[in-house]
Every structure is written in structure tokens, then in C-alpha cells.
Design brief:
The structure is a homodimer of 403-residue chains.
Chain A lengths: L4 E4 L9 E6 L12 E16 L7 H9 L4 E11 L5 H19 L6 E8 L6 H7 L10 H7 L8 E9 L2 E10 L12 E6 L5 H13 L5 E2 L9 E6 L15 H21 L7 E9 L2 H12 L2 H9 L4 H9 L11 E4 L2 E5 L2 E2 L4 H9 L2 E7 L5 E8 L3 H8 L4
Parallel strand pairs in A: 4-5, 8-10, 9-16, 11-15
Antiparallel strand pairs in A: 1-6, 2-3, 3-4, 3-10, 6-7, 7-8, 11-16, 12-13, 12-15, 13-14
Helix pairs in contact in A: 1-2, 5-6, 7-9
């Protein structure tokens, strides 16, 4: 990566022409916590998006999907603390109203504004708080990091990154933020992600590249196997770099693709690492699957097995649970063929335990990053998934309840 | 049920001609804990069976599936503490050897003996302990309850039931035991269940009825969404009641079917109630689904949603998590149509929150049995699933680890 691009500050406001701003409008119960944010470009952008495949889709997702048909946009307004989901016609009306409020604030047409909501399901948005909050938001190219903070729910830290690289010999930028934490599984799930770039990109190619990047990154993250109703990933390309718009034939297309993949995979890993209650990041690498789809099944299966997630929490190299999760994933599986590695240590060969160095295996389970490799010995399919362990912290986060 | 059949003692040894026996042979680390058991009929039985659909199937499952092709059997030998899974050729050899040891003990042909193992995956069976233990087992018609105990792993109590009812005007019996606790999800999963009856039953009909009963009972239980490698449900019908063998045309077929369904549903509920770390039994009733398959998807989805299981643990009537789990289950789902009830209290109508009696809803969440009803308003499909909450206890059971 060192040759192609380098990391810079300000995440989503790093590319030229983007500003962000936040405020605490009181949707979250704790007073003073940022819960409302705007990200805006100085000029209209080409926009691409990927959304939850959930059958219960929140109102802002429905709005985004409708507005994405034009492929144009200039801003997004986001609140945390309330998902505006399972809120019926009133919820849809409120989502549109939210973009109108932002449009007035920004002096733009509402059709250029997207919106997202994340938080509790089944309650109407407190519109008075939004009406009071949106006009107060102060926008600046310095506030990308504040934007990353304002969209958090149970995240313990913001997730953000920006890269600088060259297109047509000129320095350009790509920035990104995500929020995650709970209700995370493929596909996506209580995940919001916004990406910005000053590179000019053709819309159809941008949509295809975003879809592919999300499939290999956000869609490979699971915290608890629960799928969300509000997943949204949007990319805004404002073209201020002045390059010939990128498409598959552009000589620098691959550079942009690599930057997009680097950012989305980085943010995916950070979401898994910061899963609710997580103390360990696990990376599951499956190879030798019949095909890629099978590798994806097997890799994801481990990230959403509570039994294995508990073993991970306890630092227990219980490879039987790894084999059981992979074997029940629906992938083609030969129970006399698979190998399993924990870190660099091979634990099982041809479906059976081998004499392995127990100290090495325990050391590989003890850190805050654990790598599991499964070789199914059935073909050339490979995939990587990320997840975390299952701890008391996850349960406390999701079960402690006061009326 | 009162009219058709009544409960009696001794579970699997309640039907005439069945004996059981147990011993502590030292497979489980705690000395003196029963871990080896035999169940035998005085005469050969018609046998039917249902097994895990896992791609990693334990050696005893492979043995049972092979021997079931004859549809004849007379005994089963079971050990707990070691699953004999992911053990390759040696494991298969050991499973056969286990039945040979039981055959010698019982004076029967090995082909009439089935076997099961449950416990840790990936270690070879300690055959010396089995060789020493099996001959020591003392068999008696009184030891059905001891058998239920010896097959437990992390279960906190045995699960057992026997019913007496009439076939052709004569009193007959059907008994059953299960073990469950963790790694439980549809289909079946670390679940062993043995059923015995003195009723004569035609083999094909017995297999069909067992399959149907299991689909509506054991296959509707989830503790943690993890599927097991060792699931086995066997029914032994020894025919000592002397009736004309039951088939679909027999006038008393329905009585037997109801008894079989009553026992399997009772044992399924008891497994969910005794899930690892469980403090609450949840029953999920889905109606109004497009069809039964859709109802099954939606009902199971709740029993394996960690987010909802945490809310259940906390007594939180967080219906958004119910809707989110059902909506992501893959069933047909109209987000503006569904109703949700907690206990008798309707919480959501047409996909939105309604003004409900909060005290009632909280009371319905507070007990050790919680009923959730979801009406999808799309058709006539219905299904019931059982599960439990997710607590620190589950994590402790599965993550506390000492080398």
C-alpha cells in the first residue's frame, strides 16, 4: 500500500470541497452527546449506494434508495439514537422532512439530500429536536472527525480513514467513516458508512466498484449474526480533482479500486474490533473452498457462532467448534480433508487433530487479534471474514434495561 | 391430552421389555459422574431414526445411519464427555468397537446395536475406559431415569417422560429421554433423544411419523444457533403389546401419533428451558405466514437472535428486535402488516408501535416463560419454536477454560 497511497487526516472532509458539522440535539438520552450530523459537498456529486437487504427497511433507507435512482446528490444528514424504523407512513414523512430541514440549512434542493438514522427501532423521530438542531450545525472542512463521532451508537470509538493517491498524476483523496458495534452481520447491518472523494467517477462504474468493495468488506463482518434494518453505505464523488471521469478503461481505475478496497476493509476490521463487548478481533481466512461463495459461507459461519465466539473469548483453541461451525455453514465440506490453523500453528489435518505445539496455539489465541485459517482442500475459493468474541460486555450492553 | 394418555414413571424403561443401565467409566473428568449407558429391549425392535444434517458427522452417527438401513435393532450404547467426532477412520473403528463391546455384554449380534457419543469434538474415544465400563453396567427396568442422567453433558437436569395410552383397547406405553443444553439449533444439534414403545409399528410409517414429529419439536429448538455434529433421535418399537402393527390405516394410528408428538414437544421445550445459562423459556408462535416453511423461518429466527435473546434476559419488551429478527429471516414479510404480541398484550400493529399497557408487557416479560406471537397477515402458515435467553451463564459455560 505504501507505494500507491498514504493516510491523511480529516477522513470524510479530507477530499477537497467537503465540509461536515455536528450538534447534540437531544435525541440520545444523555444530554450533550452529539447525535446529529451533516456532510456536504460544495458541488453536486455522483453518488452510489449499497443498502440493507432486510425485509424491514427503515424509512431513511427507503428515501435513499429512491433518491439514488438519479445518481446525484450533494449532502447527507444523519441522526443517531433513533432508527426511524417500523414507523410507517409517519416515519417516511419524517425522513423526507429531515432532508427538507437540511436543504433549507444548506440552500440546496431537497432532492440532493440523503439521510440516515440509527438507534432504537419502533419509535417516531422527535422532529422538534431535529427542527431545532439542524439549523445550529456549523460546517467546516475540519469537522470530518466530529462527523465520525456523531454517528456512533454503542461504538466505543469513531472509525475513520482518508487516503491520498494519484490519478492522472495529480494528488486526489478518498475518505471514509463507519459506525457499527451491534446488530452486525452480513449483509452489513446497523452499519452506516459514508465515503467521499474529489475524484470524478462515472456513476455506473462507481456503483459496481462500491458493491464489490462492500461485498468483500462490510458484508464480511459479523458481531452477533443479527441483521440490521438501517444499513447504508453511500459514496459521494464530487469531481473537483478535474480528472477524466474514471471507468473500467481508465488507466488509473485500478489505483482508485485499491484505495476504495483498502478503506472499506480497514473500516470493516475496525467495526469488528469494536463490536459490542468485544475484547478480540478475529480474522477468518478460508481457502481451498469449492468456489468463492462457499468460502464466504464458511468464513462467515465462524464469525457468527456463539460457541466459537465464547471459546475465542476464553482463549481456548477449541478447534472442534471451528470445524463444527464451518461444517454446518452450507458449504461443500469433506470431513476427511480439511486443515485448521490457529495463527501459524496447524491444529488439525485431514479432519483430525494432530500433535501441535500447545504453547504456540495458546499464544496465538491470547492476543487481541486472532487469525484462523481453514483449508477445505476442495478447490480454489477463498474469502476473509472479520468478527469478535462474545463476552459479558455484549450481554450487558443489550440486556440491561430500565423502564 | 387428559383423555388420550396419562404420564407414568421410568421414561424409556416404562414400556414393557425395556431395561437400561449406567456406569461412571471416567470419560468425563469428574470422577464418579455417570458417562456410559445402555438401553436394551428383550426382543428385536423396529427402529427409526433422524440425524444431524451437518456436513461434519460424528462416527456414531455414520454407524447409526448404516445400521438403520435394516430397520432392526435391539439396543443402544451411549457415552457422554467425548463426541467421537472429527476422529477419522480410527473414530469409526472405535464406534464399531463400542457396539461390539455392548453386543458381548448383552449376548446380541453387534448389528442390532446402535451407539451415540456426545461431548468434546476432535479427541479419540478412550477405548480402555469403555472396555472396562461396559461389562460393569447393570441393567434393570427401573433404571430409565438413570439412563436419562448418564447421557447429560452440560444439562442441569434430565429430560424424560413416559405416557400410557390405549391401542386396540389395551394399555401400551411410549417413553422418551433427551439431552440438550448447548450447540442447539435447528436441525436438532447436540441433541440425543431415545424413544421406546411396546407398540408394534410398521417401519416405514414409524420413520415418517418420527420425522414429522422431530420437525415440529426438536428441529424447532435453538439455544445458540450452533448446529451439532452428533444429533441422533432413535425410536425402538419392540411390539410386545401384540397389536396389529400400526400404519396410516390403523384406527388407532392417530392416538400413537398424538402421544409421539406430545412427548417430543414436551422434551423439546424442556431442552430449551435448560439451555446453557438459560433463565427463561421462550415460545415463539408465528401465524399468518405465507406458508408453514415461512412460519418456521420467522419463528426460528427469534430463537437464534442474540440481540433479542439479550432483551429477553433483561425483561425488555424491545419489540423492534423481534421485528428485526423476523424480518431478516428470509420469510415473506410486509413491513406495514405485521402484529406482535408479548404474552396477551399487543405491542405493535401494522408494523408500528401502538399504545399498549406497559405494566402488562413488562409482567409478560418478567416470568420464566415468555410467549411471543407474531402475525404476519400474509397467509395461513403457522409454526411454534422454543428457545431461551442469552446470559452470562452461557458465556461462562463456553468460555471458561483451563489448559
Amino acid at each position: 500500500m505504501a507505494e500507491l497511497f498514504h493516510e491523511i487526516d480529516h477522513c470524510v472532509t479530507a477530499p477537497q470541497g467537503f465540509r461536515a458539522g455536528t450538534t447534540a440535539c437531544g435525541i440520545k438520552s444523555d444530554a450533550g452527546i452529539k447525535d446529529l450530523a451533516i456532510l456536504v459537498s460544495d458541488v453536486p456529486c455522483t453518488v452510489a449506494g449499497v443498502f440493507t437487504t432486510h425485509n424491514l427497511r427503515a424509512a431513511p433507507v427507503l428515501l435513499c434508495q429512491e433518491r439514488l435512482q438519479d445518481g446525484q446528490g450533494q449532502a447527507v444528514v444523519v441522526n443517531s439514537g433513533n432508527a426511524n424504523c417500523a414507523t410507517g407512513e409517519q416515519g417516511l414523512h419524517n425522513a423526507y422532512r429531515m432532508t427538507e430541514l437540511a436543504a433549507t440549512k444548506l440552500g440546496l434542493a431537497p432532492e440532493l439530500i440523503f439521510c440516515s438514522s440509527t438507534g432504537i427501532i419502533g419509535r417516531q423521530l422527535p422532529m422538534k429536536k431535529l427542527e431545532a438542531g439542524i439549523p445550529q450545525i456549523e460546517l467546516s472542512p475540519e469537522y470530518g472527525d466530529a462527523f465520525a463521532e456523531a454517528i456512533m451508537t454503542t461504538d466505543t470509538r469513531p472509525k475513520r480513514l482518508a487516503l491520498e493517491f494519484e490519478i492522472e498524476g495529480q494528488a486526489v483523496r478518498l475518505g471514509g467513516v463507519t459506525k457499527g458495534a451491534g446488530m452486525i452481520r452480513p449483509n452489513m447491518a446497523t452499519m452506516l458508512s459514508y465515503l467521499t472523494t474529489d475524484v470524478a467517477v462515472e456513476r455506473a462504474w462507481l456503483q459496481q466498484e462500491l458493491r464489490d468493495a462492500v461485498n468483500d468488506s462490510y458484508n464480511m463482518v459479523s458481531v452477533d449474526g443479527d441483521m440490521s434494518t438501517n444499513d447504508t453505505c453511500l459514496i459521494f464523488a464530487n469531481g473537483l480533482a478535474g480528472n477524466t471521469p474514471l471507468n473500467a478503461q481508465h488507466p488509473d481505475a485500478e489505483t482508485f479500486r485499491q484505495a476504495l478496497r483498502y478503506i472499506t476493509r480497514y473500516l470493516a476490521r475496525e467495526m469488528a474490533r469494536d463490536g459490542e463487548g468485544a475484547t478480540k478481533l478475529q480474522t477468518i481466512y478460508v481457502r481451498g473452498a469449492r468456489d468463492k461463495a462457499d468460502a464466504v459461507l464458511a468464513a462467515r459461519s465462524l464469525t457468527r457462532s456463539p460457541l466459537w465466539q465464547c471459546a475465542l473469548a476464553g482463549g481456548d483453541p477449541n478447534w472442534g467448534r471451528i470445524a463444527a461451525a464451518a461444517g454446518s455453514s452450507g458449504c461443500e465440506f469433506d470431513q476427511n480433508a480439511f486443515d485448521i490453523f490457529i495463527g501459524e500453528t496447524q491444529i488439525a489435518a485431514k479432519g483430525m487433530a494432530i500433535d501441535y505445539d500447545q504453547d504456540q496455539a495458546h499464544a496465538a489465541m491470547a492476543g487481541d487479534e486472532v487469525l484462523i485459517t481453514i483449508d477445505l482442500h476442495l478447490g480454489n475459493g477463498e474469502a476473509t471474514a472479520w468478527g469478535c468474541d462474545l463476552t459479558h460486555g455484549y450481554i450487558d450492553e443489550n440486556s440491561l434495561y430500565t423502564r
